[in-house]
Amino acid sequence: MALCLIVEDDPREGNQLRLTLGSEGHEAMIADDGQSAMAMATQFKPELVLLDLGLPDVQGMSLIPEILKLSPLTRIIVLSGADCVRTVVAALRAGARHYLLKPWDRDELLLIVDREARAVNLAETTTRDGASFCFWGAYPSMVALKAYLERLASSPLTPVLIQGETGSGKEVLARELHRLTRPGGAFVAVNCAAIPSELLESELFGHERGAFTGADSRRRGVVELARDGTLFWMRWLSSPRTCKASFSGSWKPDHSSGLAMSRSSM
């Protein structure tokens, strides 16, 4: 079961979330503004954060990178009444794992919470000396997997497809592979299946100021952000064809970044 931080300024909504999570055995605490949310996140390092964007003292969006800076493995689920494509994309780009519209569906919320809680439990916080993200143990299949990852790390430009059920630890393996290659760049995760089709190319490749209506500043795409590092493409096979075609046409084997793709099965 997971320790959850609910960031919600509506007492009724916050209590409903707490009761819903508690019915499945999760422990939940409530913060009603940004300042108390950051204080609780600093003290307790929750595994999951359920975040409302409309807070009285700060923009909820600004808390996402701050919470992840404190605890990189924390999973953030945004709950908002704002049905705006750009808000959804901004939240996911900032590091949120999911964006659910209010009023949220109980079964959908609990399914997502359960998956994310299992994913967090598979990961180990990185130590100061750059230790593994994984609990390898001595089981033969895990020893073999570790050795295979180490061989892959010797060819960091080789695209890698990681397959497994949702919550089985695909991202954990991708981060471990990234760590083993000791790259100079960042680990960047992107889920194109969650990005509206009209914004896909902008998210992948970025855009210049004035490129289209609403483009008031230059934005770097995930391909550029992952340069010299690793691009982790979640749900590769379920991504739109246009998204895969655009990316395949731009990525070349001699690019100085690795590519890890994941396929999820239910």
Write the layout of secondary structure elements.
Elements: E1 3-7, H1 11-22, E2 27-31, H2 34-44, E3 48-52, H3 60-70, E4 75-80, H4 85-94, E5 98-101, H5 106-122, H6 140-153, E6 160-165, H7 170-181, E7 187-190, H8 200-205, E8 206-207, E9 219-220, H9 222-225, E10 230-233, H10 241-250, E11 258-265
Parallel strand pairs: 1-2, 1-3, 3-4, 4-5, 6-11, 7-10, 10-11
Antiparallel strand pairs: 8-9
Helix pairs in contact: 2-3, 6-7
Order of helices and strands: EHEHEHEHEHHEHEHEEHEHE
Write out the strand line-up for the largest beta sheet, numbering strands in chain order.
2-1-3-4-5
Mean pLDDT: 80
Q: How would you describe the shape?
A: globular
What gap, in angstroms, lies between the N and C termini? 21 Å
- Helix share bin: 40-55%
- Low-pLDDT segments: 124-130
- Classify the oligomer: single chain
Named CATH topology of the largest domain: Rossmann fold
Q: How many strands?
A: 11
